[in-house]
Amino acid sequence: MSAAEKLSPKREAAARLLAGAPIPAGQAGWADAARAEARARFEAMGAPAKRDEYWKYTDPTLLTAPKAVAAEAEPTAAPEAFPGADAAEFVFVNGRFRPDLSAETVEGVEIRTLAETLGADIAFARGLFGALEAAGHEKVARPLAALNTATAVEGLTLRVTGEATRPIHLRYVQVGEGAAMVRHLVRVEKGASVTVLESGAVTNGVTEVDVAEGGAFRHVRLQADPAQAGATHVFARVAPHGLFKTFTLTTDGRLTRNEVVFDLVGDHAVGHAAGGVLATGESLIDNTVFVTHTGVHGESRQVFKSVLDGRGRSVFQGKIFVRDGAQKTDGYQISQSVLLSDTAEFDAKPELEIYADDVKCSHGSTTGAMDEDALFYLRARGVPQREAEAMLVAAFVDEAIAEIDDDAFADAMRAHVAAWMARRA
Amino acid sequence: MLKIEDLHVKLEEEDKAILKGLSLTVPAGEVHAIMGPNGSGKSTLSYVLAGRDGYVVTGGSIEMFGHDVLGLEPEERAAEGLFLAFQYPVEIPGVGNMTFLRTALNAQRRHRGEPEMNAADFLKLVREEGRKLKIDAEMLKRPVNVGFSGGEKKRNEILQMAVLQPRMCILDETDSGLDVDAMKLVASGVNALRSPDRGFLVITHYQRLLDHIQPDVVHIMADGRIIESGGPDLALKVENEGYDQFVGAAA
Ligand SMILES: Nc1ncnc2c1ncn2[C@@H]1O[C@H](COP(=O)(O)OP(=O)(O)O)[C@@H](O)[C@H]1O
Ligand SMILES: [Mg+2]
Which residue of B has its CA nearest to A393? Predict the structure, then answer.
């Protein structure tokens, strides 16, 4: 290779990642084609680099270092993420689906492994696998999602045909080091609805969600102290009168980047993304949200709350993009943080890009120390300092948790916030 | 009950002395009033008694319940029986009034080695005390002081006092911003708590409140000191002739 042909560092990094995770082949022709296209996209974009504008606050180095796939292992016991939830559990150990540890069926949902679906000719999957990821690069590159389309072999596909009778809980267990990549597809048919819970963490996870007219997809995710750096993408496309809601609570860990990218393509569609971040030590947690309004009368909300201690960092990048013609859009975004130490840091980058004239969009961001007046008031009534701080933090994060529709899952998240505050002492 | 001797306090952030040799003793069973012009240091005194950060005691002593309290945290003083009704009660979004009060009560009880009060008994107690102060169930459910009017906030302070049953009560301008009816409610809340083993320090700007809460002793405060003490008629004298007579005399 001559000097002129030398790959850029970004493309070199992409090539290294692809070399470590060969492209699966021998599936249905359409699936192989989708993989090849994703590979080409990834090679062209290159891996994310520190100097990319979209990675200005979060150094992607830990996410782009090639990592051997995690070895097979037996799951270890973990505290319950959603106590009391009557959910159907689907367990992944070190990124591998474990049918022996998982539920088989949920009424109202056709559940298959990714491999099954990609080896067959299933209409919804053909139009979805890689499609939302590909569309998601319109304004900004999301290379790690393309890498996932090109190489992920583990995951589930859900076709929701009615009202799912139980929530579906995707539980990731990690034992030791190693890459764990998963890819899920969800199609919510007309008027159908489902709640998907996730707990644990993977190193690269992508979910594509296609909500048909009047369908509803609700998502609640707990990422508790992920031991390894990880990046996730949730892509969604929402048809008229459809609903897409996602909430993530992330506590500590090394580095977590969660991207949520949804397009309200249909009229009167609703999309909400919310999250809580609790970071101390050297943890960095990044929530990057990209909302596109294509249909008219769309409503979007982003509510993110960060509580930062030690040298913990939280990054929030949130964009509302309103296409020409997406009139009567109602877009809202708030990102706030409380800093419990002088060395914690919050970086927020709110953005609006609007091409329609009859819209209502607002965003706000605040950061600051704990409210000293409120703290003193509580203490003057006899509440010990640590307990008073925990009460104020709980109240602060609650504005994001309140975005969860189901009280049981909201309460589960509240319990995790309280436990994190209790550990702090 | 409360014994303050030659108290000197300055701000932590800047070299500004606010209390300049204040002495005051409130025996158990008595109600003492402090009157004084704006800026004389009344609220500072109440904060220092409650243990708020941001002030430095550069001299003197504060004894409460028979011992020195200067080294105690605000929550420890509260658990021992100190209560401060704030001049400006704080709004705490997201924390329910009931949750707040129950957490406070049980934290105090734990500190004193007493059993916690169960939810049913607590509800009964708060409803009963709330009724007396015309605080209804809906207000009790709201976040602490959020969306409360000035008068509602002050009545909420008295409700907390009634539930927590402190031994030493400091009321910082609890009457300001109250109409006559609300003031009567507040005064009867205070009077109901008067007892031989409780002390009160009632900070006020106006003589008005003292018509309803009869003080045993009235102190006049100016520029960080008590410059005059006397019987209830001292309050009337202030009302009729203003502070200048005392301030002038002290200078
Ligand atoms: N935290 C503070 N920062 C700056 N000045 C203060 C602070 N607290 C009190 N002061 C000043 O101290 C003086 C006394 O205030 P305060 O105790 O509120 O008086 P009062 O309650 O009698 O009106 C005033 O001059 C006030 O401005
Ligand atoms: Mg004052």
Answer: B94
As a whole number of angstroms, the distance between CA A53 and CA B7 comes to 58
Q: What is the pLDDT of residues A323-378, one digit of tens each?
A: 999 999 999 999 999 999 999 999 999 999 999 999 999 999 999 999 999 999 99
Dist. CA A239–CA A191, nearest whole Å = 11
**Residue ranges of the domains in chain A?**
3-370
List pocket residues of ligand 1, CB cut-off 6 Å: B 11, 18, 36, 38-44, 54
Distance CA(A219)–CA(A340), nearest Å, equals 29
Separation of alpha carbons B67 and B58, rounded Å: 19
Q: What is the spatial distance between Cα B185 and Cα B199, in angstroms, rounded to a whole number?
A: 20
CA distance A308 to A14: 33
Cα separation of A330 and A313, whole Å?
A: 30
- Model confidence pLDDT, tens digit, residues A212-263: 999 999 999 999 999 999 999 999 999 999 999 999 999 999 999 999 999 9
What sign has the CA pseudo-torsion B32, B38, B43, B48? negative
Q: Which of residues 375-394 of A touch B (CB under 8 A)?
A: 376-385, 387-388, 391-392, 394
Which of B164, B216, B218, B208 minimizes the C-alpha distance to B186?
A: B208
Sheet of strand B199-204: strand arrangement: B82-85, B168-172, B199-204, B31-35, B217-222, B225-230
Specify the 3-state DSSP secondary structure of B95: strand
B178 close to B87: Cβ distance less than 8 angstroms:
no
Q: How many CB atoms lie within 10 A of CB A53?
A: 8
pTM for the whole structure: 0.93
Q: Which of A336, A375, A379 to mutate to test the interface with B (most CBs of B within 10 A)?
A: A379
Helix axes A29-45, A9-20, angle to 10 degrees: 150
Ramachandran region, residue A285 (left: φ > 0; alpha: ψ -120 to 50; beta: rest): beta
Query: What is the Cα–Cα distance from A318 to A292, expressed in whole angstroms?
Result: 11
Q: What would the DSSP string read from start to end of A80-113?
A: -SSTT---EEEEEETTEE-GGGS---BTTEEEEE
Contact (CB, 8 A) for A236 and A265: no
- Per residue in A159-208, pLDDT (tens digit) is 999 999 999 999 999 999 999 999 999 999 999 999 999 999 999 999 99
**How far apart are alpha carbons B251 and B248 in whole angstroms?**
5
Asked whether residue A24 carries a pLDDT value surpassing 80, the answer given is yes
Q: For A376, which of B74, B79, B111 is closest by C-beta distance?
A: B74
What are the structure tokens assigned to A314, written together? 């939280």
- pLDDT tens digits along B179-224: 888 899 999 999 999 999 999 999 998 888 899 999 999 999 999 9
